Amino acid sequence: SAVISQKPSRDICQRGTSLTIQCQVDSQVTMMFWYRQQPGQSLTLIATANQGSEATYESGFVIDKFPISRPNLTFSTLTVSNMSPEDSSIYLCSVTSGLETQYFGPGTRLLVL
Amino acid sequence: DAKTTQPTSMDCAEGRAANLPCNHSTISGNEYVYWYRQIHSQGPQYIIHGLKNNETNEMASLIITEDRKSSTLILPHATLRDTAVYYCIASYTGTASKLTFGTGTRLQVTL
After folding, report:
1. B44 touching A, CB under 8 A?
2. How many whole angstroms separate alpha carbon A37 and alpha carbon A18?
3. Do A33 and B98 touch (CB under 8 A)?
4. Looking at CB atoms within 10 Å, which of A48, B6, B17, B61 has the fewest?
């Protein structure tokens, strides 16, 4: 399975600011996904990060709020823009390669004050 | 993706087998049953998946009923480190597969 790292592991931010979260994989993967887990809740898919093209967003998530980049097959970023306390969550990236199972990174814990 | 239903919580004594049920009565013929667990807000950890046949790996066994409408994840000898939220997910395999997480079962392993 792929080894996935995320930076930062946690952060405390002021409302109105933006934070960019990085996801790095130790091998080339086909698909990368971004999920959000709000406090006490289950995981919700934000978007699929597409290499070389715009991300595909799920209902309720928009590019202006969560811009995503994927410049190559091992790296992606998620930006949480113009943050409010409601954005306090764990943000997780996941990857798949070929027909393999989806694996998750350790997550980024975000607290917005 | 088919909807899955799991009990909210379960307890298990350490050293005993933990049997976690999951209902997926609307699963389609080419959807797999995946199991993940999440320990204390870490990233979800893949456990096992299957289509029709029972599966076993170093972590667990997966028993799928013949009509595929339900399944059971078995942790043969539960330890305190198995305390986690366990998610049963019906999903297509392949590179474009998205996972739809439900609320899962919170398994508490006790001494």
Report:
1. yes
2. 18
3. yes
4. B17
- Chain A hits for B4, Cβ within 8 Å: none
**CA–CA separation, A78 and A107 (whole Å):** 12
Three-state secondary structure call for residue A85: helix
> What is the rounded distance in angstroms from the CA atom of residue B56 to the CA atom of residue B37?
16
Rounded-to-integer distance, Cα B2 and Cα B92, Å: 10
| A101 pLDDT above the threshold of 90 | no
d(Cα B48, Cα B76) in Å, to the nearest integer? Answer: 14
Comparing alpha-carbon positions, the chain B residue that sits nearest to A9 is B42
pLDDT tens digits for range A2-49? 899 999 999 999 999 999 999 999 999 888 999 999 999 999 999 999
